[in-house]
Amino acid sequence: MSQKILRSLVDWKAPLAKLSRGRTLRPLLITSPDCVSSTLCAPFDSAIVDFRDYCSAGREKDLSDYLYSSSHMIALNASKNARIVALTTTQSSNLHAGMVEGLVRSLSKELAGKGGVMNMVNVTKGKGEVGAAEFLAGDGAAFVNGQRVDVEIPDEESREYYEKRGRGKAVVTGAARGIGLQTVKRLKELGFEVYGVDHPAGDFGALEEVGVEGVVKLDVTDEVAGDLIAGAVGGGVNLMVHAAGITRDKTMKRMKRGLWDDVVAVNLLAIQRMDSQMIENGGYNDGARVVGVSSTSGVAGNVGQGNYAASKSGLIGYVEDMNGSHARFTWNNVAPGFINTDMTSNLPLVNEVVTTRVLTPLKTMGEPEDVAGVIGWLGVGGKGVRGQTVRVCGGMLVGR
Q: Which residues form the Ketoreductase domain (predicted)?
């Protein structure tokens, strides 16, 4: 197939996610089947459907009826670029949330044809308002589709603590370009004092133009990188974003040991070491949040990326472990799919066509801003979201 034909396929449909950024959405709230016909009877841009009262033993048929009526009306009346969130709980049963999850993953693919997305927020503990649902029902999550996010609703004491904590200092590794650079910009918008970290050989021009509080030039694989960062920023970090990462793609048959070691060292071992040092040297404030950048390759694997997938999947397990052993802090990941960065720009055009037009229901690649928006939410909002890996992939048809 000629490059001209391939390019025409890539340009066949406008990037849907781009069309929906920047809106201020006020989601409709549906809490029972009685609300469905009256609330979802006309075109709408955003809705939260609360199934929590139906997620208990003996309510399977009621939930089934509610699922059908609400999803049918959503399919009929959701506007272009609509944002839908299903709200569930597993505090008494997993069966019911499982039903909703299957529906969400299916309907999200139907809505994607019009640039719409649908996600699910599951409450594992607590009652009350769920900020994650509000975020996913807005335009800050334009490239998050078909995903489940588990949430513990914080008690009043924890909620007050987070509200008083403020923004403070944030550190972003891999900050000179791509997702790291856009994350720096987003965190500046949110009011953080941002320190950008990147390899000394990098181009820091774009980062310096942002007006960061400090630029730290170091190799994250340095044995004392965490200590050097703490010293450079003066400690007191409220948010650490591990955006530094590399690829060295080869099939395992052709993979040299050095290529394997380099990727694991940067993408996983350096993060472990930096976090450990930042905890030991007091670089992290109590309540600090740490966000890693995993990948859909870490979720589902990918041909020729055994080293990359191992490191990014290890990062998924790492944030789960750290939340269990360090209650004073919160770890989460984002897992980008096919994002428009330097890392993906050199891929063959056929890969872009297959990934965006076949594997991604939104029929487009995401932008670094899409990932940065979710990182910003995990750093500022995201109360009760712990040990999660939130995919920012347009609903890519790999993994779960």
A: 168-337
- Geometric angle at alpha carbon 151, from 149 and 155, rounded to 5°: 165
Query: Using one digit for the tens of pLDDT, what is the confidence trace for 93-140?
Result: 999 999 999 999 999 999 999 999 999 999 999 988 788 999 999 988
Gap between the Cα atoms of 305 and 307, Å rounded: 5
Encode 9-20: b = buried (16+ Cβ within 10 Å), e = exposed. beeeeebbbbeb
Per-residue three-class SS string for 49-84 = EECHHHCCCCCHHHHHHHHHHHHHHHHHHEEEEEEE
Distance CA 213, CA 340 (A): 27
Out of 54, 195, 284, 308, the active site residue is 308
For 81, 129, 270, the CA distances from 75, given in Å and listed in that order, are: 12, 26, 45
Task: Write out pLDDT tens, residues 283-295.
Answer: 999 999 999 999 9
Q: How confident is the model over 146-171, as a mean pLDDT? A: 75
Query: String of b and e for 34-43 (b: at least 16 CB within 10 Å)?
Result: ebbeebbeee
Q: How many C-beta neighbours within 10 Å does residue 363 have?
A: 19
**Residue 137 DSSP symbol:** T
Tokens of 100: 């909703």
- Tokens representing 368? 């670094």
pTM above the 0.90 mark? yes
Name the nearest CA neighbour of 360 among 86, 21, 83, 112: 112
The answer for residues whose C-beta is within 8 angstroms of residue 213's C-beta and 6 or more apart is 169, 193, 194, 195, 233
Is residue 284 annotated as a catalytic residue, yes or no? Answer: no
Conformation bin of residue 191: beta by default, left when phi > 0, alpha when psi is -120 to 50:
left
Work out the angle between the directed axes of helices 368-380 and 178-189 (0-180°, nearest 10).
Answer: 50
Contact yes or no for 173/242 (Cβ under 8 A): yes
CB 70 within 8 A of CB 41: no
Q: How far apart are the first and last CA of the chain?
A: 31
The neighbour count for residue 377, using CB atoms within 10 Å, is 26
**Among candidate residues 245, 261, 267, the one with its CA nearest the CA of residue 341:** 245
